[in-house]
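quick one: fe (ii) ion bound model?
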Amino acid sequence: MDFQGSLFGAPSFGTASVDAPTFDRVVRRELTRGAWVDICPAWLPEADDVFAAMVQDVPWRAERRQMYDREVAVPRLLHTYGVGEPLPHPALARARGALSAHYRPELGEPFVTAGCCYYRDGRDSVAWHGDTIGRGKTQDTMVAIVSLGDPRRLALRPRIGGPSISIEMGHGDLLVMGGSCQRTWEHAVPKVAHAGPRVSVQFRPLNVF
Ligand SMILES: O=C(O)CCC(=O)C(=O)O
Ligand SMILES: [Fe+2]
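yep, here:
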């Protein structure tokens, strides 16, 4: 921490004193059919602060959706930061910048949106899906997830069938789904008997949802 930064408790933009996320510990796991995941434990600097700020400051909304003849609550809280909208903590802006720079040669474009999910306890979850509302349905793309708070399992399975794999996402961990992952694989965060709060931040390129 730089002297001024610690003195005023303010983030010191543009100085070398703030931890920049790095990629030397990232490990790639190739899945089938051109899908892959990159994984790096304890990747995000200032994860404790970011988690606390997000729980408190993000304007979380509860969604409802139609399920057959009833309307049910979506079992997690949501908020999306769109293109150009300020993120709730400077460490997240730095993380997005670092991800954009690191993956640019492969991705060809920056990460521009941040979808946020708040899993309040083990009953909150997301069912099997791919992020295929936008271009992920037809094109290779990337979704970079930063996980905060209690660990939860991200399960992945091939769309054509076959065994699922599961990756634990802990506090500050990075998980990037890449290649054909959104259209040839599905992912889920299953319910568990016991879990404390978890926040997930998903950085996506333009028109990937
Ligand atoms: O909670 C996560 O990390 C995954 C969330 C997710 O897959 C989504 O919102 O599309
Ligand atoms: Fe997803």
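The longest helix spans residues 90-107.
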